[in-house]
């Protein structure tokens, strides 16, 4: 067991312990290391000005060699206890000798910067795209920069800068570092858990804090059993925002970052099983081929920086009634795997929420995976997210609609709406009404009227209750026009 975190920044090795590990990466970079090229504006993952690259050991290739995979992250909502055995690259490390990096030069040439406050973040997001060898098209650049906001230049010049990059080869940002040394260092330390305990003085009151980074599920489960009030951190994209905004002050953190047992997606004849440490980016990639309906939702979920860290398990445990994964999980009747020192149990998602943010999960349980049954390709499934902005916005209303047909009649229907109550709701009366009906416009018009009666949404900053009621009705017509009209013609 170690009592310090091992972190590389721009090729330099740091051992971090005690209170130093309990701070955001952006604070560490700016205040401890003086790397002030990384800017902080919102401190909640929304603006991207704090974007840096994080490199972690990936799975070995066919020759058994591993390399560091680099991704963009928001450094304001990644805490150091999440970054053990990671290599951080900041904007300061891009230039080669006195030569600025081609991405920076492209921004200069296209006049992609005015006050410049957002610029390092844009440059690092483009660097992340280059590392993934993404082809720069207008669409890919717009998607890749979803998590970066600029309030003075506008976006056209920045997009021009990115598109101009394809004309010349861009060196990898990792070329300036001795990756072999970093990799062999990580390979040794990744086998050791980290535990740090320290005392902090808060307005004259002493507080004991601790963080634990286990390297196996057994260690994680045992730590949770032996300690009270453990705050579990997966991607940290919900929890770190709450810490930054001082809504919570956790004093015992357990970071799941090294639990490689939970990093896989398994597919067998019956189930798709997604480990609790699988990121949204990894799930999105899987769904593009295997589950396009969920891939569409993931495409408009948050930003690349958030998706590179956040997890499906975190989305479920955070228990927001507008969490974008839930309508899908409800209509597919997914199951959540809960692991505790007593063993493993599976709980159907429709029984997982007992009220607003109240989970049917014991304090000593961890979500270890989520699974759902493979669907018949003829089944109809459609997922909806309604928000004021298309990208990087919180949902106003979400819906999942699933239908199985038999002899041109609806045999099974499942409907789940989010944003219309304290938890995501199934609509049993509407589902009952749809049973044995034909796929006609009249069926869905009537179903919409019943669905409206089954919910009691409230008005809030995102929309009025009336708007949500209208959506509850209209979404069924949208479903008919998108999925059923076509089906009827086929039949
Ligand atoms: C800028 C921004 C944009 C966002 N956009 C969206 C969006 O479009 N749609 C959406 O639905 N959400 C969005 N979110 C919310 C968030 O990104 C998601 O909910 C994400 O899936 C959370 O996953 P995480 O791994 O980061 O969770 P964490 O922050 O690590 O944890 C969230 C909660 O889950 C608990 N937890 C995590 N893992 C486990 C586990 N294995 N077992 C038990 N408990 C666990 C934690 O203790 C915590 O209570 C956004 C957040 C930000 C900051
Ligand atoms: S400061 Fe805005 S995303 Fe980090
Ligand atoms: S150049 Fe000023 S915020 Fe983007």
Q: Can you walk through the features of this model?
A:
The longest helix has 26 residues, at 465-490. With 491 residues, the chain is α+β, with helices and mostly antiparallel strands. It contains 16 helices and 20 strands. The protein folds into three domains: 5-92 and 176-258, Ubiquitin-like (UB roll), CATH 3.10.20; 97-170, [2Fe-2S]-binding domain (DNA polymerase, domain 1, Orthogonal Bundle); 264-490, 2-Layer Sandwich (Uridine Diphospho-n-acetylenolpyruvylglucosamine Reductase, domain 3), CATH 3.30.465.10. It is globular and about 70 Å long. The model has no long low-confidence stretch (mean pLDDT 94). Helix 2 (102-109) packs across helix 5 (156-165). It has helices at residues 25-32, 102-109, 119-131, 138-144, 156-165, 179-189, 217-226, 239-244, 280-290, 292-299, 304-307, 312-318, 326-331, 428-434, 441-453, 465-490, and strands spanning 5-9, 12-16, 51-57, 68-74, 86-89, 194-202, 205-213, 231-233, 252-255, 265-267, 271-275, 335-340, 343-348, 353-355, 358-359, 366-373, 380-386, 397-406, 409-418, 425-426. Bound molecules: flavin-adenine dinucleotide and FE2/S2 (inorganic) cluster (2 copies). One FE2/S2 (inorganic) cluster is lined by residues 40-43, 45-50, 74, 76. One FE2/S2 (inorganic) cluster is lined by residues 113-119, 150-153.
């Amino acid at each position: 067991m170690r009592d310090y975190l091992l972190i590389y920044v721009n090729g330099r090795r740091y051992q971090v312990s005690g209170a130093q590990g309990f701070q955001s990466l952006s604070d560490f970079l700016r205040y401890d290391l003086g790397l002030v090229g990384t800017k902080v504006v919102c401190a909640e993952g929304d603006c991207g000005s704090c974007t840096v690259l994080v490199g972690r050991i990936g799975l070995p290739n066919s020759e058994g060699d591993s390399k560091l995979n680099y991704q963009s992250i928001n450094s304001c909502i990644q805490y150091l206890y999440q970054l053990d055995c990671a290599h951080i690259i900041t904007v300061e490390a891009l230039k080669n000798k006195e030569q600025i990096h081609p991405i920076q030069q492209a921004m200069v040439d296209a006049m992609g910067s005015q006050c410049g406050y957002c610029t390092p973040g844009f440059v690092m997001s483009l660097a992340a795209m280059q590392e993934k060898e993404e082809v720069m098209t207008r669409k890919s650049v717009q998607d890749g920069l979803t998590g970066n906001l600029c309030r003075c230049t506008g976006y056209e010049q920045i997009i021009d800068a990115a598109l101009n990059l394809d004309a010349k080869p861009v060196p990898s940002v990792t070329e300036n570092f001795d990756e072999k040394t970093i990799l062999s260092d990580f390979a040794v330390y990744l086998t050791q858990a980290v535990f740090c305990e320290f005392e902090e003085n808060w307005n004259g009151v002493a507080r004991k804090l601790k963080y634990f980074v286990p390297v196996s599920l057994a260690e994680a489960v045992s730590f949770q059993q032996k300690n009270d009030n453990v705050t579990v951190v997966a991607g940290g994209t919900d929890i770190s925002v709450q810490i930054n905004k001082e809504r919570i002050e956790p004093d015992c953190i357990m970071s799941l970052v090294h639990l490689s047992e939970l990093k896989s997606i398994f597919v067998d004849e019956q189930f798709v099983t997604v480990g609790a440490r699988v990121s949204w980016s990894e799930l999105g990639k899987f769904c593009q081929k295997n589950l396009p309906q969920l891939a569409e939702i993931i495409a408009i979920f948050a930003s690349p920086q958030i998706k590179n860290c956040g997890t499906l398990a975190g989305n479920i445990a955070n228990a927001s009634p507008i969490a974008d994964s839930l309508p899908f999980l409800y209509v597919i009747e997914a199951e959540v795997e809960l692991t505790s020192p007593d063993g493993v149990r599976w709980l159907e998602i429709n029984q997982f929420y007992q009220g607003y943010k109240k989970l049917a999960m014991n304090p000593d349980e961890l979500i270890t995976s989520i699974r759902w049954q493979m669907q018949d390709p003829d089944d109809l499934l459609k997922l909806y997210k309604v928000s004021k902005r298309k990208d990087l916005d919180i949902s106003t209303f979400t819906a999942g609609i699933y239908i199985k047909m038999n002899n041109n009649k609806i045999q099974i229907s499942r409907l789940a709406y989010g944003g219309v109550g304290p938890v995501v709701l199934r609509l049993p009366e509407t589902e009952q009404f749809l049973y044995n009906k034909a796929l006609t416009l009249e069926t869905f018009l009537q179903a919409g009227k019943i669905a409206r009666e089954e919910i009691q949404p409230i008005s809030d900053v995102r929309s009025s209750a009336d708007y949500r009621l209208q959506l509850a009705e209209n979404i069924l017509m949208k479903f008919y026009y998108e999925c059923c009209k076509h089906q009827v013609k086929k039949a």
